Write the structure tokens for this entry.
Amino acid sequence: MNFNLISPQSTGELLEVIAENQSNKFRFGAGCTDLILELKKQPDEELIVINLAQLSDNRFTSIEKNHDEVRIGALVTANSITSDEELRRRFPVLYESANKLGSRQIRQVATIGGNLCTASPAGDIACALAALEARCEILSANGITRIIPMNDFFIDVRKTDLKNDEILRSVLTPANNESPKVYSDYIKIGTRCSMEIAVVSLAYHIQADEDDKITKAGIAIGSVAPTIKLVKSACEYLIGRDFSAVSSSEAEEFAAKVVEYASPISDIRASAWYREEVLYNISKSIFEN
């Protein structure tokens, strides 16, 4: 593989590099688990890879927690997520998505930012963060930041809302400190048991009060539409219901509302019909004891 590599070590250097290369073809790389595969298939000698692995900025590299929110830097790895016991307790859906991403070796280097910015409809961590209604903190070459909902970050297959002079710096999630009960998981269906790209995925993070009444719900779906989607009407349908007493008919109605957001395709891994049927069934299964 032939490409030009630039490795800024500070955010100031990074922004300068981005500004200086606006007329050039460039890509960002950190763990490079997807990028290396792309470049092996399609080498590009004119490409500049801006290597983020040596960047020393806590907003990019660390997990910061306070009472109101959790900030996860774009360079935080999947392994760092699975190793954080507090994140596992607060956000089981995020832990499970990171734990089901590739192999142990891949999780050591694969980053949150890479999983999001690849904008694959099968992104594991991206699906979990969408269910958590996370927000994306985006930094431009001129130092200006903007924050947008995760649901607005994905535009199309492998296309995000990032402009050419912007980079994802971190992801912000609500702290999730107030709910007595949390039902949270990531369901991934593939054609094999391990290291598989999702054929269908569903992430859910449902919060309830002491009486098990649902107070907030976040549900996102992957691999069944051009982008990962937060299924808003299905989330709204659950508010006020007793989680442990959802009837089979209510579960079916909920599942139908989830499927309304799907527009699956048929490909070598699964048919559109199969994807829709599986999505319907795993949506119902949330409430099965």
Observations:
- The chain has 13 helices and 14 strands.
- The domain at 181-285 is CATH 3.30.390.50 (Enolase-like; domain 1).
- The first strand starts at residue 4 and ends at 6.
